[in-house]
Design brief:
The protein is α/β, with parallel strands linked by helices. The chain has a single domain (4-167), classed as Rossmann fold (3-Layer(aba) Sandwich). Helix content is 32%, strand content 20%. Strands 1, 2, 3, 4, 5 and 9 form a six-stranded parallel beta sheet that branches. Strands 6-8-7 form a three-stranded antiparallel beta sheet, covered by helices on one side. Helix 4 links the parallel strand 4 (82-88) and strand 5. Helix 1 (13-26) packs across helix 5. The longest helix has 16 residues, at 152-167. It is globular. The chain starts with a strand and ends with a helix.
């Protein structure tokens, strides 16, 4: 399996906790964490397999660090690259845009030719709408550690089993 680049903000405490769980579940030393706050186009383009940490901020927005980084790769082709997305949201506090960041990121990556993998079921969540929803699935792993922390580890384990196969 090609090396997996895990892109996240090193400043995000909750996201780093989830990344540690993801790396443990991968059980793979072939993983490199990259701080999206300081990443450059070259850092991004050297990977074929990606896990992107995309929490949703406020009323369905991407975090500032993604808003600042994405323009640097807008002219690149992501054909042949696979992206597994995960991110946190609050389905009770923001039920009308739960994990919208995942949907925004998936659209961006697909527009550049990237393949988004690791879809997960919407079953077990209680929200009104989400840009991350396609039919009965989210375009990645939706985590709600504010309201459903008890399900996090199980959801990560199940998601990792699926994306490991898709990354091969």
């Amino acid at each position: 399996m090609n090396k997996i680049g895990i892109f996240l903000s090193f400043k995000s405490v909750k996201t780093r906790q989830q990344v540690k769980k993801i790396i443990k579940a991968l059980g793979d030393k072939n993983v490199e964490e990259v701080d999206v706050d300081t990443a450059r186009t070259e850092d991004f383009m050297r990977f074929t397999n990606f896990i992107l940490a995309v929490p949703t901020w406020f009323d369905g927005e991407l975090p500032n660090y993604w808003d600042e980084f994405l323009p640097s790769i807008e002219g690149e082709s992501l054909k042949g690259k696979k992206f597994a997305l995960f991110g946190g949201g609050d389905q009770k506090g923001y039920p009308e845009n739960f994990v919208d960041g995942l949907g925004i990121m998936a659209e961006f990556l697909e527009d550049l030719g990237g393949e988004v993998i690791g879809f997960t079921s919407v079953d077990g969540y209680d929200f009104e709408q989400s840009r991350a929803q396609r039919g009965d699935f989210f375009v990645g792993l939706a985590l709600d550690i504010e309201n459903q922390a008890a399900f996090t580890d199980e959801r990560i384990e199940k998601w990792i089993k699926g994306i490991k196969k898709e990354f091969e």
